[in-house]
From TrEMBL, chains A, B:
Function: The transhydrogenation between NADH and NADP is coupled to respiration and ATP hydrolysis and functions as a proton pump across the membrane.
Catalytic activity: NAD(+) + NADPH + H(+)(in) = NADH + NADP(+) + H(+)(out)
Protein name per the record: proton-translocating NAD(P)(+) transhydrogenase
PANTHER family, alphabetized: NAD(P) TRANSHYDROGENASE (PTHR10160), PROTON-TRANSLOCATING NAD(P)(+) TRANSHYDROGENASE (PTHR10160:SF19)
Topology term for the membrane: Multi-pass membrane protein
Enzyme Commission identifier(s): 7.1.1.1
From TrEMBL, chains C, D:
The organism of origin for this protein: uncultured Rubrobacteraceae bacterium
Protein name: NAD(P) transhydrogenase subunit beta
Function text: The transhydrogenation between NADH and NADP is coupled to respiration and ATP hydrolysis and functions as a proton pump across the membrane.
SUPFAM superfamilies per the UniProt record, alphabetical: DHS-like NAD/FAD-binding domain
Recorded catalytic activity of this chain's protein: NAD(+) + NADPH + H(+)(in) = NADH + NADP(+) + H(+)(out)
Membrane disposition: Multi-pass membrane protein
Family: Belongs to the PNT beta subunit family.
Amino acid sequence: MQELLVQLAVFIIAAFLGFELISRVPNMLHTPLMSATNAIHGIVLVGAIIVVATANDAFTIAVGFIAVVLGAMNVVGGFWVTNRMLGMFRPPKTRVKKRKG
Amino acid sequence: MQELLVQLAVFIIAAFLGFELISRVPNMLHTPLMSATNAIHGIVLVGAIIVVATANDAFTIAVGFIAVVLGAMNVVGGFWVTNRMLGMFRPPKTRVKKRKG
Amino acid sequence: MQVATFLAYLVAAVLFVVGIRRLRKPETARSGNTIAAFGMLIALAATFLVIDTNATSVWLLIGGGVLLGGVVGAVSAQRVPMTGMPQMVAAFNGVGGGCIALVALSEFYQGRAETWVAASAGLLTIIIGSVSFAGSIVAFSKLQEIAFTGSVAFPLQQVVNALIFLGVLLLSANVFLDGALAEAVGIPFLSPLISLYILLAASLLLGVLFVIPIGGADMPIVISLLNAFTGLAAAASGFVLENYALLIAGTLVGASGTILTRQMSSALGRPLGKIIFAGIAATGGKQEEDDEEREVNDVSAEDVGSYLKEEANKIVIVPGYGLAVAQAQSPMYELMETLESDGKEVLFGIHPVAGRMPGHMNVLLTEAGVPYAKLYDLEDINPEFEETDAVIIVGANDVVNPAANDEEKDSPISGMPILEVENAKRVIFIKRSLSPGFAGVDNPLFYDTDKTMMLFTDAKQGLQEVTEAVKNA
Amino acid sequence: MQVATFLAYLVAAVLFVVGIRRLRKPETARSGNTIAAFGMLIALAATFLVIDTNATSVWLLIGGGVLLGGVVGAVSAQRVPMTGMPQMVAAFNGVGGGCIALVALSEFYQGRAETWVAASAGLLTIIIGSVSFAGSIVAFSKLQEIAFTGSVAFPLQQVVNALIFLGVLLLSANVFLDGALAEAVGIPFLSPLISLYILLAASLLLGVLFVIPIGGADMPIVISLLNAFTGLAAAASGFVLENYALLIAGTLVGASGTILTRQMSSALGRPLGKIIFAGIAATGGKQEEDDEEREVNDVSAEDVGSYLKEEANKIVIVPGYGLAVAQAQSPMYELMETLESDGKEVLFGIHPVAGRMPGHMNVLLTEAGVPYAKLYDLEDINPEFEETDAVIIVGANDVVNPAANDEEKDSPISGMPILEVENAKRVIFIKRSLSPGFAGVDNPLFYDTDKTMMLFTDAKQGLQEVTEAVKNA
Ligand SMILES: NC(=O)c1ccc[n+]([C@@H]2O[C@H](COP(=O)([O-])OP(=O)(O)OC[C@H]3O[C@@H](n4cnc5c(N)ncnc54)[C@H](OP(=O)(O)O)[C@@H]3O)[C@@H](O)[C@H]2O)c1
Ligand SMILES: NC(=O)c1ccc[n+]([C@@H]2O[C@H](COP(=O)([O-])OP(=O)(O)OC[C@H]3O[C@@H](n4cnc5c(N)ncnc54)[C@H](OP(=O)(O)O)[C@@H]3O)[C@@H](O)[C@H]2O)c1
């Protein structure tokens, strides 16, 4: 019970943190940001690996294996594609404010 | 051990949350904000109450009692004074942008 | 060992947070992504540490699976063209949702979801994960134009959705009550496990039905929402597996994804509720086409060149999706240089949703070498049009379409703020035909023969010709 | 019961977060404070639920203590004048630090700090709590001008501090090792408990020595820093007591307090490192006073009135601490009205640290009815001075003192951005004498007889007279 309560506490604080983290991101970063957070939830791969490692029957092994493949795609592809996108945003040489006067 | 690790996790996430929460507060709110967070750490009163409630000897009772008094001052005075300060910030009737053109 | 793993997970979570923080600014975004990826590596390494098995077969399976998925992911990510990014993200999100649904399924199969917490969190994981999987695949198909393009509607759609949702609830209750519900109503063959399979199928169907009525223009928002869903599913499975890495990372993605979705939908001027619950009420435009030929002011590159040279001083260039298709960013840069060497003032007006992904135009133009300082946002450029002599619109339509302001007609772009090019003295379109853009809404500006010049050609060729014409005029 | 308490603590933590969020905007700030206070109420109520005692004496003690402390806190909070707010906050912060140090002490006394985690967190709590307590009391005394005013320095200060800090470390180690350290070096009477008492005293001394060299102008920053310290101590005691309310709330305050401190110090233009490690190198100004009489342009209210009436069109009013002392906000409002009815343009230039607390001037002026739109920030007003005919400076000095820009002299206000009133055509001071302000730095503008008019009088009276003079001129 105590364990569950603590998990709940972690969940709530982390949710607030998530909300706060994304405050007013510039428009042009929406896609990379979506893509990067998408890669982060690829952490589910951890769960899939544990399933395979602790599986005792063929069905679970099969399901787990598919899950591992899918999870790995999510992680690797997600970070990779984000990196490619962000490579397009070359650092501006002189970041002068747009308005002249 | 597990308990401690989880506490550490909570501590770290909460610290990030705290950092994120105060991002670019307008100058004029610095004092009330300081005062309100000051009142919030008055939560130590909870600790002081538990000390008195579980004390077995005179010394602890005395120390705990002083702690309760100090903690209560922190909580009540803190929120009270913040409220008074913020009462001064009357909501602007028309919050037009300062610049005329 | 357990302690080391926990600490590693915590470090990973911190790196995720730091990474997301850095993703908020263009200057630091790329390093943010790298930091988050590094966190992931740590989390995975720590997981290998706790695997308590000596069976090589298990290691082979895991290693093989990771390798297979990783290679497929990396290759697709490397190959996809820039314009295909949104559907790529949709696909990766979908597989993540599928992964987490399968993990939860196997927990039930192995009888591990014993407590009520584990059971309810597990059911939630299966439902959300499947919806996210199926929805993402549909979104992918739409954007890739494989299937379901446009807004697919059928009669009684809402009723069907509601019924399926009810079914999902009942099946969940049955699983939760260990089959007691099915027995009570006299269908004992509906064992918990069979219920689970049906639940999975029903959730997938729900995901499909959720996304098909939504038009392609709203897909980026839907993908972002499904991304938040997958994060939430990961968090729920963190409860089941008592795994803090999943719990924290999933929650972060779920929460930040929710906010991001809201921000995106407000940037595109499309309230989330409208997107989800209405779809787009059958895209008009395309079909409505009144066959009557309407007159346009069809001009040559020379006409454009001499107008620019002789009568225009302040020129605004508005790029759109066609620029990306024609890969015409370098010719555009040259036109800018030529005009500037003639002493003209040249600005770029960048609409937030020009192109097919947020930031699309910024990416292309900075790639071509246009300085940041010349790229003006919607709010910054609109006041400038009043004093502009010529607006050159290259391969764009929706973002300058005044039909968005027409309150009487309900079109897919109604209410979207647009670049108000009609305030300029002259409007020059460079595109191949009169066909409308992504949203399929005809543009009344095409037919304003006094103000508008239409240069019908490919963007790259057109820009090159105009540059020549300016030089020679 | 335990579950209910935990959930209540969680709700309290959420309310704290929501409260702090709302404190970021003036419109919602007050409700944010109320929400946080409500959270505290819930946390306290939940604590009463877990108290496992029937002894009325315990209940009486707790109730009596809370009542006593609460009444003292409320009465002081209600009575303190607006100008005394900073020291009030310092006092409340101090008592909080003292409370938490005593709690940790009693944990040791009762032998509860058994594990190494509890012991180290407990020691940290005692040290930080005591430093915060003593430091806050010193800050209070400085601001209230009871003692330690100005920057108190003595020889070898840094060395003494370092030695005490070393002592604190050694004592902590001795407690941690259960007295083994003292035995090893042959002073066995230094039992863990006695070490603790000495530790407490040494930490208090450290707190005093930390704050006394710092000048009064930097006190708000120091108070904010000590506030963050107390939060951190609360978090540490959360580890000892395994109490998530203390842990979360303390961490939130510790972290947000740290950021707030940095923001305040950058707003005041004073790097944190400089404040802490240098104190202010003996405030010059006051002593340097060269007795030589320097000439000033001493004027009457009538002179000011006729200048304003006849030669000034654009007028900027700069209020300072003296306005608050004289309670002259209403006369100031009337002067504004009078000038505006004559067709003049009147603006207010508000320096971020004018007065004695952030937002001091905004509070006073909006109280008097001056519309928000007329209050200009530092950055917004500075470009306006070029075209300003007259700046009326009411009871301010530091915030308009060009000595801040003098790079050769190191004064307490060096580097602070100021209101550049010297760019205006005329500068009119309304103050009682030539005495400098808070920082004690003389103002060269006083002696610029061409540009400056000095109206030596109380702010309230002066403003009233000037208003009359404008009406009659
Ligand atoms: N940015 C995002 O995040 C995002 C994501 C998804 C959807 N969208 C949607 O995409 C649309 C973007 O608007 P937009 O104005 O940039 O584009 P658009 O309205 O889709 O118009 C693109 C135009 O480019 C022309 N074109 C295509 N290939 C060309 C070529 N090779 N040379 C010259 N012209 C060419 C087409 O006309 P011709 O065929 O006559 O040449 C078409 O009218 C909006 O509706 C937006 O909601 C945006
Ligand atoms: N805002 C904050 O958060 C804060 C907090 C702590 C410290 N501070 C410091 O406080 C200072 C604020 O600068 P400031 O320019 O507002 O004030 P100041 O530099 O302290 O000057 C106040 C002036 O008001 C005059 N005065 C006092 N009573 C008066 C009365 N009844 N009528 C007319 N004049 C009167 C005094 O001169 P006479 O005696 O000649 O009349 C004095 O020169 C800065 O140094 C700042 O760093 C600010």
